[in-house]
Amino acid sequence: MPMKRTNVYADPEDLAIIKEAATRRGISEAEIIRQGIHLAAMANRVWEEPLFSRTFEGTGRTPSRPDVREAVADAVQRETGTAA
Q: Do residues 31 and 24 touch, judged by C-beta distance below 8 A?
């Protein structure tokens, strides 16, 4: 995909950190900035579908610590065929 040039303002301290990281990693400063832009874009993306589309039946209350431990132990027992 072709790149598009843009201008941004950045703090000098941030640019110094990027310069140091680029030297240490052996890549260009531009590559680090592109990675940062990609992370920012993905963090702010609005997805068309929800992350979790399945729903689960439940009691409608937050399970207690013993409830969670029992559920995990039961699942381990079912998966391994042993007592947890």
A: no
Alpha carbons 35 and 44: distance in angstroms, whole number:
14
Of 41, 36, 28, 39, give the one whose Cα is nearest residue 10.
36
Whole-structure pTM value: 0.56
Query: CB–CB of 27/18 below 8 Å?
Result: no
Q: What is the DSSP letter of 4?
A: -
For the chain, 84 residues long, give each residue's pLDDT as a single digit of tens. Answer: 799 999 999 999 999 999 999 999 999 999 999 999 999 999 998 888 777 766 767 777 888 999 899 989 998 998 888 765
46: part of which helix (H) or strand (E)?
none
3-state secondary structure of 68: helix
Residue 32: CB atoms within 10 A of its CB come to: 16
